[in-house]
Design a protein that fits this description.
Layout: E1 2-4, H1 11-24, H2 40-56, E2 61-63, H3 68-91, E3 94-96, H4 105-124, E4 133-139, H5 144-158, E5 161-171, E6 176-186, E7 200-206, H6 210-229, H7 260-264
Parallel strand pairs: 4-7
Antiparallel strand pairs: 1-2, 3-5, 5-6
Helix pairs in contact: 2-6, 4-5
């Protein structure tokens, strides 16, 4: 997942310039369009022109990457824990409610991407403790369920709080029900936890035009880049400066030093 950051002062001029590039490539951007829908020649031309524009105008880019193998391994690990817990409960003649589903891959990627955006804003231009900031997130058409997941991810990041996990258990032998609770803190990943983010507001806006097409081009190019470079190092971390070496936008990407996704969902073959 990837995107780029624009200040509202240059929003209109950037949009005009991007539309000009699309016109030079003879593209029709009415409706949802992905770069992979285009012929190979047009893909290469559009990618080159977009990247030259981003580099020439020093527009910051952000990205978030995860190994599906690492995500699957984490899911399996948690399922194993649940299975063993149920076996123990069965030995004691206790039944319990099934656990709630975990976050989707898109939600994890988005939350990390949003965290990177906040970190970039804090590092480069804004005092988030004092300034009122509105972040408008432009995305192409997504299902309402995905939009809700994104909003939930934002809320978890902006409003760290104590959360309660647990479930209802039933002791068949004694015919009694009771609850188990685990209390933990929900803290934003990859961020200065002491920073006050109460001044930050957000809005998700559906936008099927050239602005989201650029983000699609960036994300697609990263996928291709990882597929090519991971042939040499198939298990290395993804959210690092080393991982994007030789990508054309290497100098434009913001790399968050807190590599949360790499730590939580490493490739199963990564023993480091």
């Amino acid at each position: 997942m990837a995107g780029y950051i624009l200040h509202d002062s240059c929003y209109n001029s950037v949009e005009t310039a991007l539309q000009r590039i699309v016109g030079e490539c003879s593209l029709n951007t009415s409706g949802k369009l992905h770069i992979t829908d285009l012929p190979q020649e047009q893909q290469e031309l559009l990618r080159s022109k977009f990247f030259d524009f981003l580099i020439g105008n020093q527009i910051p880019c952000v990205f978030s990457a995860i190994y599906t193998e690492g995500l699957h391994q984490d899911f399996k690990r948690k399922q194993d824990i649940i299975t063993k817990a149920k076996e123990k409960q069965k030995e004691k003649d206790i039944s319990s409610n099934p656990p709630k589903p975990t976050e989707s891959m898109h939600q994890r990627l988005f939350r990390n991407l949003f965290a990177n955006t906040i970190c970039w804003l804090s590092d480069h231009c804004l005092d988030l403790d004092k300034e009122q900031v509105q972040i408008i997130i432009l995305t192409d058409t997504i299902d309402e369920s995905v939009r809700q997941q994104f909003e939930e991810a934002i809320n978890k990041y902006l409003q760290p709080r104590k959360v309660k996990h647990g479930g209802k258990l039933y002791d068949k032998k004694n015919k009694q029900s009771f609850r188990t609770e685990i209390h933990s803190s929900s803290l934003p990943s990859g961020e200065d936890y002491l920073q006050d983010l109460n001044n930050v507001s957000t809005k998700i806006q559906i936008c099927d035009d050239v602005k989201t097409l650029v983000a699609d081009v960036i994300a697609n190019s990263l996928l291709h880049h990882f597929q090519q470079t991971k042939n040499a190092e198939p298990c290395g971390d993804l959210n690092t400066g080393d991982a994007i070496v030789w990508h054309k936008l290497e100098k434009r990407f913001y790399v968050n030093p807190h590599r949360t996704l790499d730590a939580l969902y490493p490739h199963p073959s990564n023993k480091s």
